[in-house]
Amino acid sequence: MEPKQAPPPIDAEREAKLKAAAEARAARAAAKAKAEAEAAQAELDTPKEPSPRQNDLERYVRLIEDTVGQGTVKESGLNELNADMPMLVIASEQWPEVSLLLRDHGELRFSYLRNVSGIDYETYLEIVYFLLSLDNKQDVAIKLRTDREAPSVPSATPTWSTANWNEREIYDLLGISFTGHPDLRRIMMPDDWVGHPLRKDYEPLDSEV
To answer: Which Gene Ontology molecular-function terms are recorded (predicted)?
Structure first.
């Protein structure tokens, strides 16, 4: 039986250097974390400059409430992730009157409907109309909300004809009915298709697809 080899002698100086290097790395990491935390706190403590779009938002709300009626605007705010675009949640029953106001009022003139999207928030469905004023170089997002059991909102197609196919797509994929739409039928799925594929509770007939 061969005798066990003795472990190599410990290089005390090398061990000390390694320990000092590890401690230095830990200190740098702690200092960096502290600096980041202090910077984040300083950002929270520093009051934000008011957005230049705040006046636009307040003007839109005031014009709608004064013209259509108090309570027409359910919520309002600025989308910080999208250049502070004003966003308004409108009472669905007032949407036809509000849409004409947005399009025709001299201070607004939102004549161009850029896009329409639908979202399933599980407890309710939401439709968002993105409007652009080519005259004033301004934009706004109008949101309508409806329940999931019998989802329905007035169509914007009589005001902006470009809403036609967008609303048909939302009707097809989310099952939201648009009252007053001139030709509301499925645009992507067959007429006898069961369910609406963009709903979060949608169960495909074939789970492999």
So the answer is: NADH dehydrogenase (quinone) (non-electrogenic) activity; NADH dehydrogenase (ubiquinone) activity; quinone binding
